[in-house]
Specification:
Blueprint: H1 8-29, E1 37-41, E2 48-63, E3 81-98, E4 101-114, H2 120-123, E5 141-146, H3 155-158, E6 165-180, E7 184-191, E8 223-233, E9 236-243, E10 246-248, E11 254-256, E12 262-271, E13 274-283, E14 286-297, E15 300-310, E16 316-327, E17 332-341, H4 351-357, H5 359-363, E18 373-384, E19 387-396, E20 402-411, E21 416-426, E22 431-434, E23 441-444, E24 454-463
Antiparallel strand pairs: 1-2, 2-3, 2-24, 3-4, 4-6, 5-6, 6-7, 7-8, 8-9, 9-12, 10-11, 12-13, 13-14, 14-15, 15-16, 16-17, 17-18, 18-19, 19-20, 20-21, 21-24, 22-23
Length: 464
């Protein structure tokens, strides 16, 4: 099992971790306030500097991870259970130069402690921040400290193991917004852009989408872009976005290329009290076109969105989501969605090879499932300011596997909230077989969500 060697540097690393976690816990339960700090504000209010800090702590445990094949235990450094801690201290700085010029910077510290270097892949889909973001000209992520990593015989298969202790800091927003006469806004720099309407699946979110299992949805991660927003009327607008991206060359360097970048536009109009959206563009090597509609019928919110992708080989893939949302007088909100994933397969035996084939899309977050037909639902009851309970339900309609996500949120104070969340997959487990010709073990999936591990998370969120 990969871990921190029992050496002097390893002991120092763990001392740093213990002190850091203790400091974060103390901060999270200390008296705090939710308002932003006005560092300076002009007399007319048009200019000023504002700072908003926040702290998040995630304590998580993972169980039921994939075990190695018989006879390969010594070279399969993936434990069945594990856990860890992830901290996020984010500073949001807003600089109003004038009433028409604004700059925003989000600077984040992100320490992480894992029980195993092979644990990260099991939690990265639920806790954003550790995966490498596409559409960035430079990562702007720097490492402060980490524990050494031992090489493994499975590095060529699973990729190199992560460090069990990493402390990083990152600039996740760095942008300037210029508001011009005529309803024109130009935003340059690292920014968050979200175009989808769905609650679980968002086909129109082509830049930095969130997955149905994301536990931290308060901040969408930033991408490097130039965005032109034009308000044509009170009920219609158009956006054009140019996004920069880079790719690795054969000599291991990175360079900005058109195939790693994106150019797309979105038109939104409101007719008959219904929002209509049309989108098209080039995202990486793909051509994408999509549409969406969002409205209400007798108090029930109805929405749908569809996107068609054509890759370099001119293969066409369709993703679509339709759903409804209903709120009641009992502070109960229910959302139901059906999702069609044209990138997926109806053959359970093809899940593993499909995951390999679609690895780049899954790494970029543009694909989160391997099957084709899904049903998802969320049920949330928020009876008061103290918090509430909710449930997320996701099912693969072909193989029957499903994922349940019950959660409980409690407000310790107006500024500090405690959440307990579980992600519990239910489905047939995968099995190992042996290739009769080569004798090499092969993984055979019998359900998609049955391959996932159980995850339990306690989070503390504080506005400082």
């Amino acid at each position: 099992m990969t871990g921190i060697p029992a050496c002097r540097s390893g002991r120092r690393s763990w001392q740093i971790v213990r002190r850091l976690v203790l400091a974060l816990v103390v901060l999270s339960i200390a008296p705090v306030r939710a308002e932003a700090f006005d560092i300076w504000r002009s007399a007319d209010g048009d200019s000023g500097v504002e700072l908003t800090p926040s702290l998040k702590l995630f304590f998580f445990g993972v169980a039921g991870m994939l075990e190695g094949p018989d006879g390969y235990e010594e070279v399969w450094p993936v434990p069945d259970v594990g856990g860890g801690t992830l901290g996020r201290l984010r500073l949001r700085l807003v600089l109003d130069v004038t009433s028409r010029i604004r700059s925003v910077v989000h600077y984040e510290h992100r320490p992480r402690v894992l029980s195993s270097g092979r644990l990260l892949s099991s939690v990265s889909a639920a806790l954003q921040g550790d995966e490498e973001m596409p559409f960035r000209l430079h990562p702007m992520v720097w490492e402060i400290a980490s524990a050494p990593v031992e090489a493994s015989s499975l590095d060529d298969v699973l990729g190199p193991a992560s460090s069990t202790f990493v402390w990083e800091h990152e600039i996740d927003r760095l942008l300037w917004t210029f508001s011009l006469p005529g309803g024109i806004d130009i935003t340059v720099g690292r920014q968050a852009i979200g175009w989808g309407l769905g609650r679980l699946w968002t086909p129109l979110d082509v830049f930095a989408p969130m997955t149905p299992t994301d536990l931290d949805r308060e901040e969408r991660r930033g991408i490097d872009a130039v965005r032109l927003s034009l308000s044509m009327s009170q009920s219609s607008m158009m956006e054009v976005v140019l996004v920069g991206g880079r790719e690795e060359t054969e000599d291991g360097e990175y360079e900005v290329t058109w195939d790693a970048s994106a150019l797309a536009w979105l038109l939104r109009v409101n007719v008959w009290d219904i929002d209509w959206m049309l989108m098209a563009g080039r995202v990486g090597p793909d051509r994408v076109i999509g549409a969406a509609v969002d409205g209400q019928v007798r108090g029930v919110g109805l929405r749908g969105e569809v996107a068609m992708t054509m890759d370099e080989e001119r293969d066409r893939w369709v993703q679509a989501t339709v759903g409804c949302e209903l709120g009641t007088s009992f502070n109960l909100t229910a959302v139901v969605e059906y999702h069609y994933n044209g990138f997926g397969t109806l053959d359970t035996d093809d899940y593993v090879s499909r995951a390999t084939r679609m690895a780049s899309r899954m790494a970029a977050g543009r694909l989160s499932n391997l099957g084709q037909h899904y049903l998802g639902a969320t049920l949330a009851w928020m009876p008061g300011s103290w918090g509430g309970i909710s449930l997320v339900y996701i099912q693969n309609l072909h193989d029957g596997s499903l994922l349940l996500g019950p959660s409980l949120e409690y407000a310790i104070s107006d500024e500090v909230r405690l959440s307990v969340v579980a992600l519990v997959p239910i489905g047939a487990d995968p099995v190992w077989t042996t290739d009769p010709e080569t004798g090499v073990p092969e993984l055979v999936a019998h359900s998609e969500l049955g391959m996932a591990a159980q995850m339990y998370v306690i989070s503390i969120r504080a506005s400082i």
